[in-house]
Amino acid sequence: MTSSRRNTKFCDKASAASGSSAGTSSEHFDHEIAQLTKLRSGPNEYISKLIGGKNKDWISPVKMLAARESNCFQKSKFSMADGCHMLSRYLPVNGPYLVDQMESCAYVSQFSSDGSLLVAGYQGSHIRVYNVEKGWKVQKDILARSLRWTVTDTSLSPDKRYLVYSSMSPIVHIVDVGSSVTESLANVTEIHEGLYLSIVDGEDNGNSFSIFSVKFSTDGREIVAASSDNSIYVYDLVANKRTLRIHAHELQSLISLIFLVNTLVVYIGLHPKVIVFSVMEDVNTVCFADESGHLIYSGSDDSLCKVWDRRCLTSRCQPSGTLIGHLEGITFIDSRGDGRYFISNGKDQTIKLWDIRKMSSNSACATTPRNYDWDYRWMDYPEELKKLRHPNDQSLATYRGHSVLRTLIRCHFSPEYSTGQKYIYTGSNDGTVYIYDLVTGALVSKLSHHETTVRDCCWHPYLPIVISSSWDGMVIRCEFRGDEVNPPPLKRRRRRRYLI
């Protein structure tokens, strides 16, 4: 922890009105989210004034406990914010402890909404569901059906009954996690029903595309998926059909063709004919903005984040707004859950914080010309580009330090219950989980326990436990255990690695 603080990095402000670009503090973060975060995770204001001190934003647990016993809180217990203030100081940095290890790369890890289950998806067709409350024992071992290349995403229903998984295929499969079958071999020991996103009213549109992201709605009645054919799909599980397709991310270009020398010109009267063409971009990530399910956030290789309101979609499927700021493609989006704020991870090696009230209806100024040839899958990001900023950046803050290379690396808000969403955290290509302070942008901890890329990570909704899944095949947990006896440290298994 000490070394992490010595190497603290700060977030950049999105505009001059937000203050300086480095060394910012919560007092100078001129935005509503700073106050909302403080209300969720700050100490009791009366106690802050009573105890005083140089740092009123941090009061020791001993003093808070003494104040509670003296009834200084004027009630018999801590508030939710008081609890978050204490719990958020005890980051899950002890470890690592091995949850599981496979011969293939681990791509996905996520807790259930109550934290009792952990889901991990591997490239080698396996999806395992672990029972957290029973010593991380494998409760269900799923062998995926019709897998292409890897399991790209999984999502567990809010009631923990069903799990959907996707791959480089237009079919999303659903499995009954609540059944008594432990070894779930697709259509052998258990049915994995296919949800066909490429078919409408029984007619196949002939497209073969990949699904990169899939999420359940809060009520568990729908799933939303992001695909490589520039589209967002919504599937109604009750009606058992696809109900919506949005052509979400297309690069629109205007080209005037004028015949000069050997160039063809088509004239209509005295005016050159203008042709509009579209270039389809992969939609890498999608999620519901809040519990209502009306708003959807999407991110694409076109470097744009878009907001979609299903209540006012027309036949042209225009977004409610576009958020501009990333210089490269978006790899993941996570919503704060309030229908207003979200974060995005980008191939420009940054995480950005957004407020949808700042979105623009015009994306004409979104793209900037690129004069370099770079592919994130096998090349390092050019050093001279790391400090560049979009001239029309609409983000509230930018967080730097991690690396987004090789795969669609994911980022998340920390849990509301234990931290008041005070932190954001992300995987990284250097085998590390980075934890940033949301308001100050400070790098508060680095969990460096993997040999290679950490694609996904997840924080337990109630306990100080962080899970990371890596291309080294390991799913690892870090935690804060207090005075409990720590389990033996992780012993790495030496094995031969092949490049794929």
Can you give me a brief rundown of this structure?
It is built from 6 helices and 36 strands. By secondary structure, it is mainly beta.
Description:
The chain has two domains: 60-89, no CATH class; 95-479, YVTN repeat-like/Quinoprotein amine dehydrogenase (Methylamine Dehydrogenase, Chain H, 7 Propeller), CATH 2.130.10. Residues 1-28, 252-278 and 495-500 have low confidence and may be disordered. The strands form ten sheets. It has a five-stranded antiparallel β-sheet, with no helix packed on it. A five-stranded mixed β-sheet has the order 3-4-5-6-10, with no helix packed on it. It has a four-stranded antiparallel β-sheet with strand order 2-36-35-34, with no helix packed on it. By secondary structure, it is mainly β. Residues 14-26 have a biased composition (Low complexity). Keywords: Membrane, Repeat, Transmembrane, Transmembrane helix, WD repeat. Pfam families: WD40.
